[in-house]
Specification:
The chain contains 8 helices and 12 strands. It is α/β, with parallel strands linked by helices and about 250 residues long. Strands 6-7-5-4-8-9-3-10-11-12 form a 10-stranded mixed sheet, sandwiched between helices. The protein has a two-stranded antiparallel sheet with strand order 1-2. A hairpin with a 4-residue loop joins β10 and β11. About 35% of the residues lie in helices and about 25% in strands.
């Protein structure tokens, strides 16, 4: 098994042997607590070390916030890694998937067959080098609001976490919406991290519950992410939930 060195100081401390590759990871915690920001710290070094990333960020209307938050946190410019990244955007108005630009797909991933087709298509868009391909999906809970496909898509998420060495997986999930269902993913993933934000102090905290075949420090650790970054994330997440949940609920 490979080890990915994450250069953000906190990860060097709590994961002294590095991040296991390939593996599947769930970062979970309350809504708006900063989970995608923690994921971005992993993504940045994944790209820097020659890997590819497929972004399926269900809560964002476009990729602007992803690009700006990664640059703010890690000083990585996604524009310099265009050949190594692909985007899958949620579009519930579609029956299937369609190309929306270079390495960009729009897909109604509420439907299980589209979930799989979109991932398989995106895998062909990026090289499988360095640590390989990382599928980074945030705000998975939104898909569970579908009365028709909610339970089926949950099973597809589990299969993605268990698929093995074809690609690595990083999911961020909220305990605030459909928490009883989405918690099933916690049991399947190789690695499990818990995140929560202190609303009074505007500080973010991370705990590693388990990690595949590498040593890690136990306990709760502060993630040095600014109040402004956390506030921006929460605002975007709140707006997106209000916009997306009613749409998914009709599918």
């Amino acid at each position: 098994m490979q080890r990915l060195k994450i250069n953000f100081p906190l990860f060097g401390q709590i994961l002294p042997e590095g991040f296991p590759v390939p593996s599947s990871t769930v970062i979970t915690g309350p809504g708006g607590s900063g989970k995608p920001l923690v994921g971005n710290l992993i993504v940045a070094d994944w790209l820097r070390q020659g890997g590819s990333v497929i972004f399926m960020s269900l809560q964002y209307p476009d990729h602007t916030f992803i690009k700006s938050s990664i640059k703010t946190l890690t000083h990585l410019n996604l524009g310099e890694y265009q050949e190594q990244i692909a985007f899958i955007s949620l579009d519930v108005s579609l029956d299937g998937i369609q190309e929306a630009g270079k390495n960009h797909l729009k897909a109604n991933v509420v439907k299980p067959e589209n979930w799989n087709n979109a991932i398989e298509t995106a895998l062909k868009m990026v090289p499988n080098e360095g640590p390989g391909v990382l599928l980074f999906v945030s705000a998975l809970n939104l898909l569970l609001f579908s009365p028709t496909y909610g339970k089926e898509i949950l099973e597809e998420m589990k299969r993605a976490l268990k698929q093995g060495s074809k690609y690595s997986v990083l999911f961020t999930t909220s305990t605030s919406a459909k928490g009883d269902l989405i918690a099933e993913l916690d049991l399947v993933a190789d690695n499990l991290m818990l995140v929560h934000a202190d609303r009074a102090t505007h500080k973010l905290y991370l705990t590693i519950e388990r990690m595949k075949e590498v040593k890690f420090l136990k306990g709760e650790f502060e993630v040095p992410i600014s109040k402004d970054d956390l506030s921006a994330l929460k605002e975007v997440a709140d707006q997106s939930r209000k916009r997306i949940v009613p749409l998914v609920s009709k599918v």
